[in-house]
What we know:
heterodimer, A: alpha+beta, seven-stranded antiparallel beta sheet, about 45% helix, B: mainly alpha, Rna Polymerase Sigma Factor, Chain: A, Arc Repressor Mutant, subunit A, 2 domains, two-stranded antiparallel ribbon, 2 strands, about 5% strand, globular
Amino acid sequence: MNNIKEEFKKIEIPNEINNRVSLGVHQAKSEKMKKKRTPKWLLGAVASVMILGTGFTFGGSYIAGAAETLFNQLFDSRQNFEEAHLEKDPEFYHLFDQSLALAEEVLTEEEFAAYIQLLKEQFEIQSEIRKENREPTGEEAARLHRIMELERSYESEFALKEAQQLASYSITTPTYLPEGYRQDNESFSIEKKGEEPVIELDFSNGEYKFSTDQLGIDKKHGLEEYTWKDAKESESYSLNGIEFFYVKTEENFTGMRVTLPEKGYKIIMSADNLSKKEMEKVLLSMVERQRNS
Amino acid sequence: MIIINRLVKKAQEGDEKAFLKLFQQYQEDLYRIAYAYVKNQNDALDVIQEVAYRSFKKIDTLKNPEYFKTWLTKIAITCSIDLIRKNKKVIQLKPEYEEFFGSEDEDVSLSVTLQDLLDQLNEVEKSIVILRFYQDYSFKEIADFLDLPLGTAKSVLYRALHKLRKNFKEVRIGE
């Protein structure tokens, strides 16, 4: 044993760290925005099967049990999968199993078969690349990118259901959308072990985007902690008896937060190009549906 | 399924929020690594800001999302050394490759104070000690990371431990 880790932990983390990280990212972002963007197909083409944040506990074993079989049916054996993907965390498999069980429950038989086929193809390509310890070819990268796009279209069918199993509050979606906007994506993420998911919905009208993130009332959102702190305009107010907060940053991005302590959650909205009134309407449509239920 | 590559992908498409989520997970470790080199809070904060800047600017060059942490660690070490060199002229000590202390056994027991670690080691030694004992990288990974031959990585580590040994209460190599 050595005590180097303990000694390192003695280095105190200053509170200013978050601001400095935020500053660095802002600086890079503003420089990036001046440049032409890299073509999408070049980006993020290689998939990994790393799970972000674990710590789920599964009370019942029925999902894990049933899906363990599913997993084995689909991917030969876990040992092969572990060797190919270097993924040994048992919680990864729990989560994977749960996803598969939900996919089977929610998707039609044909959809489920197509989804599994995509996963298999993805893992086969990735295993090949790993085995040969090399970068993917352009063709592989493009195919992986396409596969994952298609997978996401299926996963969005059950993402909210999956997230609801992990959240203590009721997940909500807007019943009102500004003209021309439609939903692009719904997903969830868990940042740290044991934390509740953040439910992320993305919308766009082809030119501009907005997004909503629903999260536990006590959890700090990255936007609140960093970007909003230095906003040039901010306002706290109450609307229909609900607590609202509005900000406008120097780059003219707008943000809004609605807080519902009695329901145990808040929603953080950010928009490229929406009026304050429109943002309020979207958020009210999300929270009032639940308040009235 | 929750996968990190979604966040990396979002960040690569310019999503600042996604990038911050990813970065936040590692920022404390990165700060401590920076501190080990620059030895004061103000400079370590400068390094962290620079790491955030460089990594977000260059994230579209990251081909394998699973190496995100390694990639950030590398940027943090580079930024720290850049800052030291900017602040003062430092003559870099060339590792003496032929020097080799102790056995190749990786089970190394030692007791070291933070101050020893900060003050006694040169940049290369510090990098290897941090990567081996703080970040738990293997010798092979360290050698790849720092672009050193495997034997060199080992010999530099053992030399670092030997240097520190003078001040240790207890050093046992190869037990």
